[in-house]
Amino acid sequence: MTYDAVLFDNDGVLVEPPPLELLTEAAADAFAAVGVEDPSEADVDAISYGVTPDRLRDVCSTYDVEVQDFWQTRDRTASDAQVASMRRGGKPRYDDVATLDSLADPLGIVSTNQQATIDAILSHHDLDSLFETAHGRPPTVASLRRKKPEPYYLDRALADLDAESALFIGDSETDVLAASRAGIDSAFIRRSHVAAVELDVTPTYDLDSLWDLHELPGVTLAEN
């Protein structure tokens, strides 16, 4: 069996993930932008990372702000903060991303980060030409219900690449679950921030580095 495509999560796989403090500050900025000057620390944390639609609606009800307008503001401030940090040297690309040049399979990205952030990362790190498709989230509440471990964006990437068999590389349990639900293989990459993580699900492969892709059955290497 050979894969029709190889897909990648972005943060923690291709580039270093943003520090939680950066996302928390961006969330506080989002509250300020809609006129909420003194949100509770718990509510700032709730919309910083791992946001659920129900929790978002609860927070918006507490401060009497419109859900979709607030979420668009939050996603914009989170994206702007990450892009500004990247331009100062944050979100560096992992060295082993260089191995993607040696892969012959069509490549794609499926990320829970904002589409605007993914587009900026690809441009900043000169990765555009490597990937035939790249899916982040649009700034909608509906996107929260579709993010991994739901396979929605993986399915869209597979359709873009006309791929039936594929490998998805991620750094979280939700990545492995999303791949399983999409009916494709998964590889869990043990970056430093997840080196000791014990998963409750079993990926198809466990990788130390993207260089390990060279050794996987089904991955096609470009001819020299």
From TrEMBL:
GO BP annotations listed: DNA repair
Pfam family, any one: HAD_2
Stretches of the chain forming a coiled coil according to its record: none
Alphabetized SUPFAM superfamilies for the sequence: HAD-like
Superkingdom to which the source organism belongs: Archaea
GO molecular function: phosphoglycolate phosphatase activity
InterPro entries assigned to the protein according to its UniProt record, in alphabetical order: HAD-like_hydrolase_sf (IPR050155), HAD-like_sf (IPR036412), HAD-SF_hydro_IA (IPR006439), HAD_2 (IPR041492), HAD_sf (IPR023214)
NCBIfam families: HAD-SF-IA-v1 (TIGR01549)
Assigned protein family: Belongs to the HAD-like hydrolase superfamily.
Protein name according to UniProt: Haloacid dehalogenase superfamily, subfamily IA, variant 1 with third motif having Dx(3-4)D or Dx(3-4)E
The organism's taxonomic lineage, starting at the top: Archaea, Methanobacteriati, Methanobacteriota, Stenosarchaea group, Halobacteria
